[in-house]
């Protein structure tokens, strides 16, 4: 059967600018939404000469939208493959140019020099290619292993480079929540140092501008909690990055005498007595804002504090069971050397049983 061809150029005054690609196809051909989706699924749609499988792709000025199809044929959407569960990340936002995810703490963002493959980038690559929604996952920025929170990846190298340029110009909004050792007396403040790298790859501040990278961190205290009468407690802080150097937040707070709980690299001696039981850092990338690389739309995403961090703060405030240990934890009465309620109940039952046994022996006599 002969193929038909329809084409549309998105003019500067077009009302299709920033609209979905399927809206443009519908304007060209008409028909039901199901039929339009089927055209995308059967590779009938191209944008600027490239096959486009995503009906939700945003149109921009100058785009060449074209559809090649068989007349009188009904194009039905193809059955969607069952989605695989995402291990180690959850998708917050996705379109044809970028994907924003929330990373779990235990996962590396990108491979190390040792060539580790089980990384966030590798898993998102698999997702993007499996769903047919882009070329892959291209790194824009990173989070350390042990840190959870929001990250954005470009779906093409060009998209990633455009967002990276925003980061270099310090335009994105990057905010973190953290729990640090000790009491920070100032209600708010800033760190401004030059970060250099030691031979063991640890980072440290230096006064030598030629030997380090400028690093600026702003913070605001949101909560202070006293762990015990003998300890200096912990402080919950809201952190805003102006620059994004490797280990920047961790180094700045550790050098000030207030390391991130769980950080075994920078001053663990100052927090290990505080009872942090989790194999992660008490640091979470909670807010990420930037401009879309194609539409220039302002995007902003937020993520709530992880369970481990909120659970630890509740434990401190309520002096309850140790976080992360559930019913197996000792009660506060046990820690004082007094019998717990559970132990008292066992003793009561044992005492009652002993009295019944004594009564039975008397009756036999």
3D architecture notes:
The chain is of the alpha+beta class. The chain has helices spanning 21-29, 33-41, 120-131, 157-168, 248-255, 307-318, 332-335, 341-364, and strands at residues 3-9, 45-47, 50-51, 64-70, 89-94, 98-103, 138-139, 148-154, 173-181, 188-197, 203-206, 213-225, 234-241, 283-291, 298-302. A hairpin with a 2-residue loop joins strand 2 (45-47) and strand 3 (50-51). The longest helix has 24 residues, at 341-364.
Radius of gyration: 29 Å
Biggest sheet overview: 11 strands, mixed
Work out the helix count: 8
Mean pLDDT value? 84
The sequence of SSEs as H and E is: EHHEEEEEHEEHEEEEEHEEHHH
| N→C terminal distance | 107 Å
Structural class: alpha+beta
Shape: elongated
Strand content: 25-35%
Number of β-strand runs? 15
Q: Segments where pLDDT lies below 50 for 5+ residues? A: 325-365
Helix content: 10-25%
Describe what is shown at a glance:
This protein is an alpha+beta fold and 365 residues long. It has helices at residues 21-29, 33-41, 120-131, 157-168, 248-255, 307-318, 332-335, 341-364, and strands at 3-9, 45-47, 50-51, 64-70, 89-94, 98-103, 138-139, 148-154, 173-181, 188-197, 203-206, 213-225, 234-241, 283-291, 298-302.
């Amino acid at each position: 059967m002969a193929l038909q061809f329809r084409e549309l150029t998105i003019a500067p005054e077009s009302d299709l600018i920033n609209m979905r690609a399927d809206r443009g196809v519908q304007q060209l051909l008409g028909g039901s939404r199901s039929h339009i989706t089927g055209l995308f699924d059967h590779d009938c749609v191209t944008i600027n000469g490239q096959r486009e499988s995503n009906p939700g792709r945003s149109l921009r000025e100058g785009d060449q939208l074209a559809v090649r199809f068989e007349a009188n044929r009904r194009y039905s959407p193809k059955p969607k493959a069952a989605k695989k569960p995402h291990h180690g990340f959850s998708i917050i936002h996705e379109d044809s140019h970028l994907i924003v995810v929330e990373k779990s703490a235990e996962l590396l963002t990108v491979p190390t020099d040792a060539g580790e493959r089980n990384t966030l980038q590798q898993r998102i690559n698999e997702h993007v290619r499996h769903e047919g929604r882009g070329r892959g996952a291209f790194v824009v920025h990173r989070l350390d292993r042990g840190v959870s929170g929001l990250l954005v990846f470009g779906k093409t190298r060009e998209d990633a480079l455009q967002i990276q340029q925003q980061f270099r110009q310090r335009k994105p909004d990057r905010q973190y929540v953290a729990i640090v050792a000790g009491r920070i007396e100032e209600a708010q403040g800033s760190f401004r140092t030059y970060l250099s790298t030691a031979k063991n790859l640890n980072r440290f501040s230096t006064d030598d501008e030629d030997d380090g990278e400028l690093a600026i961190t702003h913070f605001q205290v949101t909560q202070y909690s006293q762990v015990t009468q003998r300890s200096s407690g912990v402080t919950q802080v809201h952190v805003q990055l102006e620059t994004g150097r490797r280990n920047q937040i961790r180094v700045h707070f550790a050098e000030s005498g207030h390391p991130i709980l769980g950080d075994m690299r920078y001053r663990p001696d100052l927090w290990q007595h505080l009872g942090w039981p989790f194999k992660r850092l008490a640091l979470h990338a909670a807010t990420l804002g930037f401009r879309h690389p194609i539409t220039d739309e302002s995007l902003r995403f937020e993520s709530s504090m992880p369970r481990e961090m909120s659970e630890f703060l509740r434990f401190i405030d309520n002096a309850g069971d140790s976080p992360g240990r559930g019913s197996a934890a000792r009660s506060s009465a046990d820690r004082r050397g007094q019998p717990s309620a559970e132990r008292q109940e066992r003793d009561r039952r044992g005492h009652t049983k002993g009295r019944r046994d004594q009564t039975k022996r008397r009756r036999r006599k």
